C-alpha cells in the first residue's frame, strides 16, 4: 500500500461495526483492511456498471 496514506476517522453504527469486525476476523484481515477491500469491490462494481475499464 501507499506509504502516504492519511489516517481517516470514521464513525459507524454499531451493527455495521460488528459486521466489519466479524468479516475481518473471518477473512483474517484488520478492520481497516476489510473496509478498504469492501470499498475497492464497490468501486470495481460501479466501473463495470458504467462500462469503465
Question: Any key phrases for this structure?
Answer:
single chain, mainly alpha, 53 residues
Compute the number of helices. Answer: 2
Relative strand content = under 5%
Question: What is the CA–CA distance across the termini?
Answer: 22 Å
Task: Count every beta strand, where a strand is a DSSP E run of 2 or more residues.
Answer: 0
Gyration radius (Cα, Å) is 13 Å
Helix and strand pattern: HH
For the biggest sheet, the summary is: none
Described by the principal axes of the CA atoms, the overall outline is: globular
Which range best describes the helical content: under 10%, 10-25%, 25-40%, 40-55%, 55-70% or over 70%?
A: 55-70%
Structural class from helices and strands? Answer: mainly alpha
Mean pLDDT: 91
Poorly predicted residue ranges: none
Walkthrough of the structure:
This protein is mostly helical and 53 residues long. It has two helices and no strands. The chain has helices spanning 14-26, 31-50. Helix 1 (14-26) crosses helix 2. It is globular and about 35 Å long. The relative contact order is 0.09. The model has no long low-confidence stretch (mean pLDDT 91).
Amino acid at each position: 500500500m501507499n506509504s502516504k496514506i492519511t489516517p481517516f476517522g470514521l464513525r459507524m453504527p454499531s451493527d455495521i461495526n460488528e459486521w466489519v469486525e466479524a468479516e475481518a476476523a473471518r477473512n483474517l484481515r484488520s478492520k481497516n483492511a476489510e473496509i478498504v477491500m469492501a470499498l475497492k469491490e464497490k468501486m470495481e462494481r460501479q466501473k463495470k456498471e458504467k462500462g469503465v475499464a
